[in-house]
Specification:
The chain is built from 21 helices and 14 strands. It has helices spanning 15-21, 40-43, 51-63, 69-79, 106-120, 137-146, 165-172, 187-199, 201-207, 217-220, 224-235, 261-264, 301-312, 328-335, 359-365, 368-374, 382-396, 402-416, 436-443, 450-456, 469-475, and strands at residues 2-5, 8-14, 30-32, 86-89, 92-96, 128-133, 152-159, 178-184, 209-211, 291-296, 316-323, 375-379, 424-428, 463-466. The structure holds pyridoxal-5'-phosphate. Pyridoxal-5'-phosphate binds next to helix 13.
Length: 476
């Protein structure tokens, strides 16, 4: 597969160059020359294949010939010892993307990226040094993904005192090839310092610096796999049992049932008006019906991966772009005018993005007509987000995190307006225990998944540095 920049279609590079560079030299994003369709034999089996086999089939054409099949197989099996279950909750489905080690969907991208980088750089003796700035979530996933990967070290910059205790342990509790710098400043300071280091040609070359930000195409491609898996299972009329980390509480029974209380008791699901839809099974998966997938979005990398899966042939009926009040894309979809703006703080803070960097990539693949047809937009306020967390918990004993609640609420809004019909799935991008300080006020205690409980036992070790590029240069 060859990739070219969204801003210059004449110079194509291979997967290795696109992945290791991250951003194209002209400032554009790398996009594939064409989107490879699934072979018919794969497409017809998506509903029954193992997750790792779907990941292998999804990624294979994108990395060909740079990563040969046996190496790719090893990479996906080691990256994904966990699944992305599609479970029934109240009147609809939730696609749980938080069963990885840092309990957010970013594990899917970061774990593949780390292993792919390691393979692509095999035989090089000079170690690669990744630097990344984080406001919380990305740093944890990148640190965890690259932890223990040979020939690569990672330095994470985070704003001192402005990440949660859990996030600090995810970033700074690993040690080994991951080092953490607590910057006496804001996230913007961290980002500025990273950019300055990467722009310092002498430093970049001497230390072999690279970055792992979310616009890297190697973080997106593996995310297409869970869309294909979910869409395939939905079309086959199948649901999964929730894993051990499924956030169900109280007397609603074991997660393994894959059902909510109302469904188990034989009541019509979705009876409580607070989450919108009427008490029917219309939005449950049914054999032969393609699912509509709702994507809580910030930088729009996740939704771009969904569009890739759909163009490869995954049986998705439609997407919903769900945002908090940072509603640049929903506004664009309703008005046709793209207006980037400064971000506003919300309780779904991983989606506080006013200028979504992956939009340029989405627009490169979809004409305005295609976009209008395949993506519906809706935005959600913090009060609405809280109300839904409370209502879904009361109805089904299931705890949504604030980001997933934005997705659920956006679906409710479109259902009210009659814009969505048929099977409906909400992508759950994080486990609610990551945002316990917000969620527990609404639902009571949230069960902590084993991966996060282990993280809390670590002690964070970081060096404190001033918000100053020369301090970073010295320490590097
Ligand atoms: C990063 C993140 C998002 C936003 O994903 P994009 O790919 O940037 O649209 C949503 N939810 C959570 C929990 C995240 O960490």
């Amino acid at each position: 597969m060859r990739y070219f920049s969204t801003r210059n279609k004449s110079e194509a590079v291979d997967f290795t160059a696109a992945a290791l560079a991250g951003l194209a030299p002209d400032g554009g994003l790398f996009v594939p020359e064409e989107i490879p369709p699934y072979p018919a034999a794969v497409r017809s089996c998506l509903g029954t294949m193992d997750y790792r086999d779907i990941a292998f089939e999804t990624i294979k054409p994108w990395v060909n010939p740079d990563i040969p099949d046996p190496a790719l197989e090893e990479i996906v099996y080691s990256a994904y010892p966990f699944d992305a279950p599609l479970v029934g909750v109240a009147d609809r489905q939730v696609l749980e993307l938080f069963h990885g080690p840092t309990a957010a969907f970013k594990d899917f991208g970061a774990r593949f990226m780390a292993r792919a980088f390691s393979y692509l750089r095999r035989g090089e003796d000079k170690p690669l040094r990744i630097i990344v700035a984080t406001s919380g979530d990305t740093g944890g996933a990148v640190a965890d993904g690259f932890f223990g990967v040979e020939g690569i070290s990672v330095t994470v910059l985070y704003p001192r005192g402005r990440v949660s205790p859990l996030q600090e342990r995810q970033i700074a509790g690993l040690g080994g090839n991951v080092s953490a710098l607590a910057v006496e400043g804001s996230f913007d300071d961290c980002q500025r310092m990273v950019k300055a280091a990467l722009a310092d040609a002498e430093l970049k070359k001497r230390l072999n610096l690279s970055s792992a930000n979310s616009i890297n195409v190697s973080r997106l491609i593996p995310q297409a796999a869970y869309y294909a898996a979910a869409a395939g299972r939905a079309l086959a009329g199948r649901l999964d049992p929730g894993g051990e980390a499924s956030p169900r509480t109280g007397d609603y029974g074991p997660a393994a049932s894959g059902q909510d209380r109302s469904a188990r008791n034989g009541e019509a699901p979705g009876a409580a008006g607070a989450t919108g839809s009427a008490g029917t099974a219309e939005h449950r998966v049914r054999k032969g019906q393609a699912i509509t997938l709702v994507v809580p979005s910030g930088n729009f990398g996740n939704l771009t991966a969904g569009v890739y899966a759909w163009k490869m042939g995954a049986p998705v009926r439609r997407f919903v772009a769900a945002t908090n009040i940072n509603k640049t894309v929903p506004d664009y979809l309703s008005s046709g005018t793209y207006l980037a703006r400064p971000s506003q703080a919300t309780i779904s803070n991983a989606m506080d993005v006013g200028t979504p960097s992956n939009f340029e990539r989405m627009a490169a693949h979809l004409s305005w007509t295609d976009m209008k047809e395949s993506i519906l937009g809706a935005f959600v306020t913090d009060d609405e987000t809280r109300n839904t967390i409370r209502a879904v918990h009361a109805l089904a004993g299931y705890v949504l995190d604030p980001h997933s609640s934005v997705g659920w609420t956006a679906a409710d809004k479109l259902l009210e307006r009659g814009l969505v019909s048929g099977p409906l799935g909400i992508l759950s991008t994080a486990h609610p225990a990551k945002f316990a300080e917000t969620v527990e006020l609404l639902t009571g205690p949230v069960p902590v998944p084993p991966s996060l409980a282990k993280v809390m036992e670590r002690s964070p070790q970081s060096s404190i540095i001033p918000a100053d590029s020369s301090a970073l240069k010295d320490i590097l």
